[in-house]
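Customer escalation, tier 2.

The customer says the design service returned an amino acid string that "doesn't look like it belongs to this structure." They asked us to rerun it and document both sides in this ticket. The original structure tokens are below, unchanged.
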């Protein structure tokens, strides 16, 4: 049986596999930055009622399985997460106090797919992304 969620007048199950990438695919998502960015994304998701079911940060991209309430579009949620997190990253990690115009952290695009009957497979893929990518990269950033 699927785990349906409900709001005032709707029962829903809207889950998505989302991949976001830093600008120029820089390998900046490791160590302290990885933990801080994860914390920022979790906080922003809580503010919108979006649940992170699974997440994994690789050195140059982030995989997330999100449960997004149907009142929000995927594009709005991804835009919100990337925009607000970029501001917080510049404030907290890079010491920028003002003037955020033109200071992007994330690339313009993103990848999204719906998670339906294959949710278990997608969750395992996201959870074990480290193992999958180690074969392609010899450098371990943790």
């Amino acid at each position: 049986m699927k785990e349906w969620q409900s709001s005032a007048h709707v029962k829903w199950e809207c889950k998505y596999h989302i991949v976001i990438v830093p600008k120029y695919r820089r390998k900046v998502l490791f160590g302290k930055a990885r933990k801080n960015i994860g914390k920022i994304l979790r906080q922003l998701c809580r503010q919108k009622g979006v649940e992170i079911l699974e997440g994994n940060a690789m050195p140059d991209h982030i995989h997330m399985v999100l449960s997004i309430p149907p009142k929000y579009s995927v594009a709005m949620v991804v835009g919100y997460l990337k925009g607000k997190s970029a501001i917080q990253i510049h404030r907290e990690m890079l010491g920028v106090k003002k003037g955020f115009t033109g200071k992007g952290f994330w690339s313009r695009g993103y990848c999204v797919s719906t998670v339906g009957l294959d949710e278990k497979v997608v969750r395992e893929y996201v959870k074990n992304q480290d193992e999958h990518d180690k074969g392609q990269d010899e450098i371990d950033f943790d």
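Tier 2 assessment: The sequence is consistent with the input. DSSP finds four helices and six strands in the chain. The radius of gyration is 16 Å. Sent an explanation to the customer and offered a walkthrough call.
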